[in-house]
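Lab channel / #folding
Pinned by the channel admin:
"Please post every new chain as: sequence first, then the structure tokens as a reply. Keep commentary short and put observations after the output so the thread stays searchable."

First post following the new format, from NK:
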Amino acid sequence: MMVLMTTGCSTTQYSKTVPKVDIDRFMKKWYVIAGRLTFLEKGAHNAVEVYTWNKEESRIDIDFTFLKDSFSGKVKSVPQKAWIHNSKDNAHWKVSPFWPVKFNYLIIDLADDYSWTVIGVPGQEWVWIMAQDWKMSDETLAMIVKRIEASGYNVSKIKRVPQMWKD
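Reply from TO:
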């Protein structure tokens, strides 16, 4: 997922975030299941975000990778850095693809068992649904999309990201 250059640096509209994120539980590999994606993610297959807490730098290191245009496409990798902007809930981050640019990253929904999450941006232009497992049923995805819509996001252009992994 690329919060990257597309969200803009300043906006006054913010979305509601989840009440609390256990940052240790959130640090893991997330499969990007679906979303209203940026133009830079067009054609993404097997999209994955890996979050790692960097204790020395007090930040989150993000490794976003995907295959371009097909399951045999070229691997694209976008390393990013993130800082927790609101330490009371850990649900609002500032993400930087390169210095000095930082963008808002909001954890707007999260399963109680941390099996899936929804990431949004303040202007609600983009939204990503991610999961711990690459195989998400259509029923589960539909339930999450309904929750996103209930929170005020336009869900009309949410598309599934092709995922195919060997178990």
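NK: The first strand starts at residue 29 and ends at 36.
TO: also worth noting, Confidence is low (pLDDT under 50) at residues 2-13.
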